[in-house]
Design goal:
There is one protein chain. The chain is an alpha/beta fold. The chain contains 40 helices and 28 strands. Among the domains are: 210 residues, 3-Layer(aba) Sandwich (Vanillyl-alcohol Oxidase, Chain A, domain 3); 90 residues, no CATH class; 188 residues, no CATH class; 108 residues, Rossmann fold (3-Layer(aba) Sandwich). Helix 17 runs antiparallel to helix 18 and helix 29 crosses helix 40. GO terms for molecular function: D-lactate dehydrogenase (cytochrome) activity; D-lactate dehydrogenase (NAD+) activity; FAD binding; iron-sulfur cluster binding; metal ion binding. Belongs to the FAD-binding oxidoreductase/transferase type 4 family.
Length: 952
């Protein structure tokens, strides 16, 4: 660490605790990673949680001449979110959401995930304008700082045009809140010189008709190259100019502490279709016609190579599989309406517009949300999916340019010719065709000087083509970053570029805010610090470090995220191979044990957010290896009934301790003992009493047509349903519910000896897990009369384990295995009268239920029991089997946002995994019950029950 950074660190320690000042090699590498193809490792990472802390960082940076970069999610693609100096991460503590004026406006802090803003607006039928493909991961601060747009917002609804108010901190720590009259008045006094200088720059542009015309023309296109100097023309008040200059400034002018957007309608009626053209030119001419027609809300172009790249995806129209014509292209079209009638009119109008261009095939418009979501998910994941197909060791580059839409076909063909000329045969083109905005993806290797030169030559050619020949935008929505900084002057010309340089000097005269981003004096900055992507493990080598997985990870904020685990493992493997830095290697390996392996929940929810399905948990399980004590696991599996009895006895001791010492004191003693003896589990505050024994097993089905085998998981045989005093097992509610539906449950003999094997598998005790699985499979086959009766599995993780095992051929194919949610929704609910009993209900969809694909059914059943439901975006609660007892900080970390997400008046929740319910109840402050208990309380037998579906 340099002397300046050491002095900075000493100064900033007066304002932030050491645990939020990161200097170790593992975490600086991990936090320093973004979605771009640049690798800079910061010397210090600051996890700032308040304006006061950011102000302290800026003051210390100024005092010690230390460059500072501020970033949020790090999904940026052009190198604007990396630093080799001080990186300030904005996330925790910056997640405030305030819906205003009945949803007409929304005030957001920079750490809010874009999708969470839309979730808050959904009940008002509104959304924010920007809609980048990364909206489920990207945070508002980055979206504003990059002027993100996306597939549907075009230019009219981007951050610049929907900005209502801004709270911004300048380099000197001054805060301007444009929504606060007093703040604006004070700023006019304290920064009169700055505002006057902006007015002078505005007058300079207006005094040059050719320059003014150029600025206005270029911003009719999507354009994020350089600073948004259209602000100097669009507004008269320099305060408004300043606020709008901040949009798209990429952290080079100041820190956006909050933003208020004017929201836009989110029409409930939507339809999407896919249209294939045999000729690219006809496809592009159709785009121009669609833009003129005005009935479309989004049009995405997918070129022939992209069509080939998505053919492994399920749910697409048949005409997209097979070999497309040599110059084929497709359009993904979305249209919306205030009601079904308007939507139908718009769909018909679009069809009429397309007809003269003779499409080769057309899926027709679908209003099925699942179908539409499939189409758009494929498009949103195209960049990472393409990147995943690259050769190991190469990186993935995505650029986005904008051509005048009337020259779109020519632009696509000229770009394709450049790919061919420079040998990038894998390159694909896709993008927001309605705006002439094209993304192109290719996979260069930066492992030699020749490859770097090839990339340099290609970028020079692209810049000449787009910016000079076509008068387009080198950056349409991804931000200038480092990659296009050397080409800003080429695109804009000397006069406009001089204005941009003066803007940078006005706001950041010392050049300490995100240096070399947007404005750089280094003409080769785009060729430096290129990211190496060395092989690490085939399980994760496809990762392009986009970061889409991070919001689903329960250890994010506690240790490492999936992206960070992969980045660190790549570095470890690289250092092992080249032997260049044994000291750093030893430190990385030592720290990776806890941060990379121990704290990974390994539930695989990262795979559900990853466009190519990478399950980092698979890598973690592989690296953890076999169980340390397989003999113990074998003994537990062989004597499971006795072990479960001991567990129930332990719960009895816990209940007694709570009665004598009180719940709070017992919790404190338990946690203190756990710190001294880590193997001693921690019982969360909502840990229930032991469950009473299951009812006596019937000897045979009473009526095969209505019989169902009920398999009670070991966790539901141990833990009671309800609070600390209740001893009622979940089975009691489930059996009553089945009876109300006219079904006859069949219980297995000696259930306490049976287990799906998941607890053993998660500990690496594979032999014990396999024996448990086999034993359970044989018992289920016998109880179900050779598979003739359906099997009801009452705990989601167990259901997933058994169903996946059957799919893999490890259980008899005759077994009819049903997870509880699916069976209740498809078989039981149609035979019941379900009435609303609750005003508010929180719903948690467990990881296993998401993977089984029945999360929607869980939500739908919950909706029938409550007037209003809330489904917080908690992809994984972090309890992860027994980790909630062994590593309670993981569960606490994952659920730290839960309580604030629950609406006022919400007094209960529902889920379908017993351990999840324990963790949720402990951290939400409200009880979470099983789905069976909820339905049992809300349902009565139907007067005319639906027939039981025939068993397959």
């Amino acid at each position: 660490m340099s002397p300046q950074h050491q002095a900075f660190l000493l100064a900033i320690r007066q304002h932030l605790p050491d645990e939020r000042l990161v200097t170790d090699p593992l975490r600086t590498l991990a936090y320093g990673t973004d979605g771009s193809f640049y690798r800079l490792v910061p010397q210090i990472v600051v996890l700032a949680r308040s304006e006061a802390e950011v102000a302290a960082v800026l003051a210390a940076a100024h005092a010690h001449r230390v460059p500072v970069t501020l970033r949020a999610a790090g999904t940026s693609l052009s190198g604007q979110a990396v630093s080799d100096s001080v990186l300030v991460v904005i996330g925790e503590g910056w997640t405030g959401i305030e819906v205003l004026d009945g949803g007409e406006h929304i005030r957001l802090q920079p750490g809010v995930i874009g999708q969470h803003a839309n979730d808050a607006l959904r009940r008002h039928g509104r959304k924010i304008g920007p809609d980048p493909a990364s909206i489920a991961t990207a945070r508002i601060g980055g979206m504003a700082a990059n002027n993100s747009s996306g597939m549907c917002c075009g230019t009219a609804q981007n951050g610049y045009h929907t900005l209502a108010a801004l709270r911004v901190m300048l380099r000197d720590g001054t805060v301007l809140d444009t929504a606060d009259i007093d703040s604006v008045a004070a700023f006019r006094r304290s920064h009169a010189g700055l505002l006057a200088s902006l007015a002078v720059l505005s007058d300079r542009i207006r005094s040059q008709p050719a320059l003014e015309a150029k600025v206005r023309r270029k911003y009719r296109l999507k354009n994020t190259t350089g600073y948004g100097i259209n602000a100097l023309l669009d507004f008269v008040d320099p305060v408004d100019m300043l606020a709008h200059l901040m949009i798209g400034s990429e952290g080079t002018l100041g820190f956006i502490a909050s933003i208020t957007y004017r929201t836009v309608p989110d029409h409930p009626h939507k339809a999407s279709c896919l249209v294939l053209f045999s000729e690219l030119e006809a496809c592009c001419r159709a785009v121009t016609a669609l833009k003129d027609g005005g009935a479309v809300d989004a049009v995405e172009l997918v070129d022939r190579r992209s069509i080939l790249a998505i053919q492994g995806k399920k749910g697409l129209p048949a005409f997209l599989y097979g070999a497309p014509a040599p110059s084929a292209a497709a359009l993904l079209i979305e249209t919306r309406g205030a009601d079904a009638a308007e939507l139908a009119v718009r769909c018909q109008a679009i069809g009429a517009t397309l007809a003269p261009f003779a499409p080769a095939a057309d899926s027709g418009f679908s209003t099925d949300a699942a179908v539409c979501d499939t189409y758009w998910a494929v498009r949103k994941g195209l960049f990472p999916a393409v990147g995943a197909q690259r050769a190991v060791g190469t990186t993935c580059v995505i650029e986005d340019v904008a051509f005048p839409v009337e020259r779109l076909a020519e632009g696509v063909m000229r770009l394709t010719a450049l790919f061919d000329r420079h040998g990038y045969d894998e390159a694909l083109i896709f993008g927001h065709a309605l705006e002439g905005n094209l993304h192109f993806v290719f996979a260069p290797g930066f492992d030699s000087a020749a490859e770097v030169q090839r990339y340099s030559d290609f970028m020079d050619a692209v810049s000449q083509l787009v910016a000079v020949e076509f008068g387009g935008s080198l950056k349409a929505e991804h931000g200038t970053g480092r990659n296009v900084a050397p080409f800003v002057r080429m695109e804009w010309g000397d006069e406009a570029y001089a204005v941009m340089c003066e803007i940078k000097a006005l706001f950041d005269p010392d050049g300490l805010l995100n240096p070399d981003v947007i404005i750089s004096g280094d003409p080769r900055i785009h060729l430096k610090d290129l990211k190496a992507m060395p092989a690490a493990d085939p399980l994760v080598d496809r990762c392009i470090e986009c970061g889409f997985c991070e919001p689903a990870c329960p250890s994010s904020g506690l240790s490492l995220t999936p992206r960070q685990r992969i980045v660190a493992w790549r570095r470890i493997q690289q250092l092992r191979r080249d032997g260049s830095d044994p000291q750093t290697l030893a430190r990385l390996e030592a720290d990776y044990g806890w941060a990379g392996l121990d704290t990974c929940a390994a539930t695989g929810m990262c795979a559900t957010r990853c466009p190519v399905g990478i399950n980092t948990g698979d890598l973690v399980r592989k690296l953890r290896g076999e169980a340390r004590h397989p003999g113990v696991a074998n003994a537990v599996e062989a004597h499971l009934g006795a072990v479960l009895g001991t567990a129930r006895a332990g719960l009895g001791v816990l209940r007694l301790a709570r009665g004598v010492l009180g719940a709070s004191a017992t919790q404190s003693v338990n946690e203190a003992l756990h710190r001294v003896i880590p193997v001693l589990p921690v019982a969360p505050s909502a840990t229930p009493a032991a469950a009473a024994p299951l009812p006596v097993t019937p000897t045979a089905p009473t009526d095969p047509s209505t019989s169902v085998v009920y398999f009670a998981s070991c966790v539901n045989r141990v833990f009671a349903e309800g609070g600390a005093e209740a001893r009622t097992p979940l089975a009691a509610s489930a059996l009553r519910l089945l009876a109300k539906a006219g079904l006859s449950p069949v219980l297995l003999a000696a259930q306490d000896d049976l287990c799906c094997g998941q607890p053993f598998e998660s500990q690496g005790a594979h032999a014990a897990a396999d024996r448990a699985l086999d034993r359970t499979g044989q018992a289920l086959l016998a109880a179900s009369d050779g598979g003739r009766l359906p099997v009801y599995l009452d705990n989601a993780p167990c259901a997933l384990r058994l169903i996946e095992a059957q799919r893999a051929g490890r259980l008899d194919h005759r077994l009819q295995l049903h997870d509880a949610v699916g069976f209740l929704a498809d078989v039981v609910a149609p035979r019941l009268e379900i009435r609303v009993q609750l005003d508010q209900l929180a719903v948690h969809v467990p990881c296993s239920t998401s993977k089984l694909g029945t999360g929607g059914k869980l939500v739908a059943l919950a909706q029938r029991c409550a007037s209003e439901i809330t489904v917080p975006d908690i992809a994984c609660c972090g309890f992860a089997g027994d980790k909630g007892f062994r590593l309670p900080e993981l569960n606490a970390n994952s659920l730290r946002r839960l309580k604030p997400l629950l609406p006022a008046g919400c007094a209960s929740g529902v889920s379908c995994s017993r351990t999840c319910q324990i963790g949720l109840s402990s951290h939400a402050g409200i009880p979470y019950q099983s789905l069976e208990a909820l339905l049992d309380a809300c349902a009565e037998p139907a007067r005319a029950p639906a027939p039981v579906p025939p068993h397959p």
